Amino acid sequence: MVARALSFGAVAEAYERFRPGYPVELLDLVMAYAGGPIRTALEIGAGTGKATRLFAQGGIAVTATEPDAAMLAEMRKHLPANVTTVQAAFEDLPPDTSYELVYSAAALHWTNPEGRWARMAALVRPGGVFASFGVPIQLADPALNEAARAARAAYLEEDGVPSPDGTPADRPMQWPGTELQQSEWFTDVRQSVIERRLTMSAHDYIGQLSTVSAYVMLQPADRDQVFRRILQVLPETVELNAQVDVHLARRHH
Question: What distance in Å separates the CA atoms of residue 187 and residue 183, rounded to the nearest whole number?
């Protein structure tokens, strides 16, 4: 898992360029759930700062942590003054400071499941909020989705991240909500979806795929071949279902 979690450094610039940012509705959703002002936040696995910028925009003092030096260097090019960056993995964060909000954008599944929620609880102030969210990269057209899947199948069966706790995709509550519901430290677990569609060139879509760990881990020659094959079956412009999946929970008092 660690090799995979650290595989993004090589693609930091592509990540910054091609990955979609997060919509202001996400900030609104988290603020509404918090039910009061959030002044301090800790971000786990900040990457190039896609979500960092959104929360900093909300006037929150964000401490953005990221283990990968290349991602961090890319993030620092784009940050407002109210963000502090720290090179550290979640597992190495000292539990001596707690925050009103702790969140993770498309990075929680890279953290070690061993003691994850006890560690998280130490970082979230009692009554504070934990949030996890991500954007599955999916072609909106089912027929195109199938064509792209068939085009890559010889090299890559699955290009998504499997559910960390094996929750089937048809269950009403998905991970990490499932683990949060069973955790003694968190309550009021909520799962929401912010609907969003994005239109982009097929080449930009491939640019996004080039930042996805399943593709990053392929041998370069295989990766080029996969991208060529996928491009062949796509029109010049594609529509993405870029919904934001959100999980929220509150730390017990």
Answer: 8
Map out the domains of the chain as residue ranges. 2-137+161-198+242-251
| Strand ranges, E, within the chain | 40-44, 61-65, 83-86, 99-105, 124-134, 138-139, 186-194, 197-201, 237-241, 244-251
| Alpha carbons 207 and 33: distance in angstroms, whole number | 34
Angle at 1 between CA 13 and CA 96, to 5 degrees: 85
Categorize the per-residue pLDDT at 1 as very low, low, confident or very high, splitting at 50, 70 and 90.
very low
Average pLDDT, the chain: 91
Q: What are the distances in angstroms from CA 202 to CA 112, 198, 209, 229?
A: 35, 12, 11, 12
Question: Which element (helix H / strand E) includes 123?
Answer: helix 116-123
Examine the pLDDT at 2 and tell me if it is beyond 50. no
Q: Which of 41, 149, 52, 170 is nearest to 107 (CA)?
A: 52
Q: Alpha-carbon distance 167 to 99, whole Å?
A: 29
SS (H, E, C) 53-67: HHHHHCCCEEEEECC
Fold observed for domain 2-137+161-198+242-251: Rossmann fold (3.40.50)
pLDDT higher than threshold 60 for residue 217? yes
Interval 150-158 mean pLDDT: 86
pTM over 0.85: yes
Cα–Cα dist 62/49, whole Å: 11
% of the chain at pLDDT higher than 70: 96
